[in-house]
Write a structure and sequence with these properties.
The complex is a heterodimer. By secondary structure, chain A is of the alpha/beta class. Chain A has 18 helices and 24 strands. The longest helix of chain A is centred in the middle third of the chain and has 16 residues, at 174-189. The relative contact order of chain A is 0.11. The mean pLDDT of chain A is 83. By secondary structure, chain B is an all-alpha fold. Chain B has one domain (33-166, 173-289): ABC transporter involved in vitamin B12 uptake, BtuC, CATH 1.10.3470. The longest helix of chain B has 34 residues, at 303-336.
Chain lengths: 501, 341
């Protein structure tokens, strides 16, 4: 066997005592398409960031064609031939395809950009890899799949020998996915090594040669795709024994459809081009989890329920009364609360103390003749801090200085304080440690047992199977299935989430 | 590159406004009036060219008026207090303006201040510096003395276009001020720089997507400093032209002019979200504001109403910019609409 194209040895990353990636090895040959899979927090993105230079690994080394890769220096890594195509666009939309492909490296003649040579170079490159693009088209006007091809061409123009593709099909239509896969196979045939990150098992089995599965920060399986079955992949991803155990533990308190009283009823909700035909009932006293891939439009859907994003079809009934969600203020007035996904940008005032953050949603309760009553606020805040177990329990502490878990508790607490009849949460435990996760689950279960209707959107399958009374799966803007959580196994969920709808 | 029709929108609109004023405003279509327009707005056009660079990079330079005053006062001091000959003053003036711009750029890149805050601070600081070094305050008897150095006053020269073209007696064309020719020269140089060199393409890349530019090996920090330096350099050129016209300088020179320059660049197509625009647009934007103001004056409309109208023009330009962005977003959303197939 020849020497591998890319060889990572003992690559690891830890933040203080938290180990994000245990020392791992990864080899990639010329012309190989290697899938990298694992659930959220498995260390996948840390591994990728180590390879792109976005993160400096705590240990280990990477060789590219036998030469060490300058770890931790994104620019130098790209120049040595490792490029990454991110899920979000890395192009300048108002510039031409040609200028994007040769960004920062246009050929010059007497100090002027040599358009003729630039055009020939770009056309040669496109022809060599069989990519069909108009060099003069404005990138911002191209459809998404074409933009992905521009990014690929841009990476190739930088002599990329290794391409990392991070969920490249997240935004693509089915036919476009096929088209992209053809391009990927073509590149592999030309000797480019590709690391393909995806949640979609169908895609992995369609386009990849081999796969590496990560779980809890370490490589658990490395195999050629034709020598492993889907069930084996899923088992390796989630850890079958663990899955069964936590399922049993969570099953005890579940009550599918809660008290049976329908709180929120959604009928045929849709927004053109985003999601459609969303229908479900949310009962008092149940936790309904909706899961799916990033880009399956779960977030957009719940924002439409709350009134912070528009919808153009269907209706929403709250306690049997028809409502037209218009604005967040409207949602709040009707007893709906929404805990947004991004606590740093959408959820919290990081530069303000815990106290101010916690009372933000309930300030009107503390008015007397238009003036705030500080004593009432203080009393409410102390009892909330105690109930939420925020550490440190000091109302004056700036929220930005709290740990992720405690920030999240403040964020959820600020909505629980309103005691809404419907509480919607978007990814409630992202970047939260295990202890705080358990506390948040307990808070949500307690709210459910008080009769609140809880709707949780989450990509974390462990969270979904632990927390939910019922589970819904969204896939490409549609609610694919909805059923009681008891008895659903994670492999079944994974299959539905990644289904080629 | 934007499509041809969107490129032509501004020139056509400009010509339409020009035609309307020629028809309805008394004495508007006269040679003397066009001389005034060219001489009075050439320096603003140069400021707008300079301003386009920070805006292209998603930034802004609020300090150009203060830099203009700083350079103007340096010329005043050097010429009248120290008797430095004009040929030596000119390069020094350009240097002062460029350095003031470099300081802005360093505040944005090294100190990582937002361009708005950084240049708001330097606006105050530079203006304060003007008062501190003002020859008018230090040597009071100089305040009534005009600058007479030919190297400087020579910039206030007019060329008889009618005679140059040999059309004497046929038509009466406006005399062309040297400042207008300098504006055209500045436009040409910076246009070539922006449209036909790596430097220029790199600036568009940074404005379009800073992260992508950084990953493409573009020296984002260095180019950002260069963009602010160009803005400062243009302010210095504008200062020379203005001082030549006034034969003196004052502490309040160019106060508030930054807003006109920003408006001209934005009207000209430099989106505040960066990454797009052409310098010719900024110059057309300047003269669009110019003909509206001069035209309305000649129609006897109150200066306050004129300011409101200037605001409205800016609003329409920015609104149009916003509209284009929204339309592009909607198109993209429609492309994504294929997703739930």
């Amino acid at each position: 066997m020849t020497a591998p194209l890319l060889e990572a040895t003992g690559l690891g990353k830890s933040y203080g005592t938290l180990v994000a990636l245990k020392p791992s090895d990864l080899r990639l040959n010329r012309g190989e398409v290697r899938a990298l899979i694992g659930s959220n927090g498995a260390g996948k993105s840390t591994l990728i960031k180590c390879l792109t230079g976005a993160v400096t690994p705590s240990g280990g080394s990477v060789l590219l064609e036998g030469k060490p890769l300058p770890l931790g220096q994104p620019g130098a890594i790209i120049r040595s031939g490792v490029s990454c195509i991110y899920q979000h666009s890395n192009l300048a939309p108002m510039m031409s395809v040609m200028d994007n492909i040769s960004m920062g490296r246009q050929p010059t003649r007497f100090g002027f950009v040599d358009r003729k040579t630039q055009r020939t170079q770009v056309q040669d490159l496109l022809a060599r890899y069989g990519i069909d693009l108009d060099p003069d088209a404005l990138v911002g006007t191209l459809p998404t799949v074409k933009q992905k091809e521009v990014e690929i061409a841009k990476a190739l123009a930088q002599d990329a020998k290794v391409l990392l593709m991070d969920e490249p099909t997240g935004w693509l239509a089915v036919s476009d996915v096929r088209r992209l896969h053809e391009t990927v196979r073509l590149l592999a045939a030309k000797g480019v090594g590709i690391i393909y990150i995806s949640h979609m098992l169908d895609e992995i089995f369609a386009v990849c040669d081999s796969l590496t599965i990560l779980r809890d920060g370490e490589v658990v399986t490395e195999r050629a795709v034709d020598r492993i079955s889907r069930t084996e992949v899923v088992a390796a991803m989630v850890g079958e024994r663990l899955a069964r155990e936590s399922l049993a533990a969570a099953d005890s308190g579940r009550k599918a459809t809660g008290s049976g009283e329908v709180r929120l009823s959604v009928r045929g909700l849709g927004r053109r081009g985003v999601f459609r035909d969303i229908s479900f009932d949310l009962h008092a006293g149940e936790i309904l989890c909706i899961t799916g891939l990033i880009g399956s439009k779960r977030t957009e859907m719940i924002h439409a329920l709350f009134g912070s994003a528009p919808h153009d079809a269907g209706e929403v009934l709250l306690n049997g009364k028809r409502l037209v969600p218009r604005s967040p203020a409207w949602g709040m007035a009707n007893g709906i609360g929404l805990v947004p996904e991004d606590r740093q940008h959408e959820g919290l005032m990081l530069g303000m103390p815990i106290r101010d953050n916690l009372v933000m949603t309930t300030l009107r309760r503390f008015h007397r003749f238009g003036v705030l009553r500080p004593r009432g606020i203080d009393r409410s805040v102390s009892s909330l801090i105690a109930a939420l177990n925020v550490q440190p329990p000091r109302p004056a502490q700036l929220v930005g200085r709290l740990s992720g878990g405690n920030q999240q508790k403040v964020l959820i607490g600020k909505w629980l304080a309103r005691d809404p009849s419907v509480l919607i949460l978007d990814e409630p435990t992202v970047g939260v440690d295990v202890g705080a996760k358990a506390e948040i689950y307990a808070l949500l279960r307690a709210a459910r047992d008080r009769g609140m209707a809880v709707l949780v959107v989450s990509s974390d399958l462990e969270e979904v199977t632990t927390l939910a009374d019922r589970i819904g799966v969204m896939n490409r803007g549609r609610l694919l299935s909805l059923r009681p959580a008891a008895g659903i196994t994670r492999p079944e969920l994974v299959a539905e989430i990644g289904a080629d709808a | 590159m934007p499509s041809l029709s969107s490129r032509l929108t501004l020139p056509v609109f400009f010509l339409a406004v020009l035609a309307i004023f020629c028809l309805i405003a008394p004495n508007f279509a006269s040679a003397g009036n066009f001389e005034n327009l060219m001489a009075g707005y050439a320096f603003i056009g140069i400021l707008a060219i300079g301003q386009s660079f920070p805006i292209l990079l998603r930034g802004i330079d609020l300090s150009v008026g203060a830099i203009l005053a700083l350079v103007g006062m340096c010329i005043f001091d050097l010429s009248l207090m120290f008797g430095v000959p004009g040929w030596a003053i000119l390069p020094l003036a350009l240097l002062v303006g460029t350095l003031a711009g470099v300081v802005n750029g360093l505040m944005v890149t090294v100190l990582r201040l937002s361009p708005f805050i950084a240049t708001l601070a330097s606006l105050a600081a530079y203006r304060g510096l003007v008062y501190a070094i003002s020859g008018r305050q230090l040597v009071p008897e100089l305040s009534t003395k005009p600058i007479t150095d030919r190297w400087i006053t020579g910039f206030e020269t007019y060329f008889d276009l009618t005679r140059v073209l040999g059309l004497k007696g046929v038509v009466k064309l406006p005399w062309v001020p040297l400042s207008f020719l300098i504006l055209l020269g500045t436009l040409l140089v910076f246009h070539v720089l922006l449209a036909h060199t790596r430097f220029g393409r790199d600036l568009y890349a940074i404005g379009g997507n800073p992260e992508a530019a950084r990953l493409a090996g573009i020296k984002v920090g260095r180019l950002t400093v260069a963009a602010y330096a160009i803005s400062g350099l243009c302010a210095a050129i504008a200062a020379i032209l203005l001082v030549a016209r006034l034969t003196t300088s004052t502490e309040g020179l160019g106060e508030g002019i930054e807003l006109t320059a920003i408006a001209a660049a934005v009207i000209g197509g430099f989106s505040l979200t960066g990454g797009t625009g052409r310098l010719l647009g900024s110059v057309i934007g300047t003269f669009l504001l110019g003909i509206v103001l001069i035209g309305l004056t000649q129609m006897g409309i109150s200066p306050f109403v004129q300011q409101i109208l200037t605001g409205l023009i800016l609003l329409v330009a920015v609104g149009n910019d916003r509209l284009q962005t929204l339309r592009a977003d909607r198109q993209r959303a429609r492309a994504l609409g294929e997703v739930p197939a």
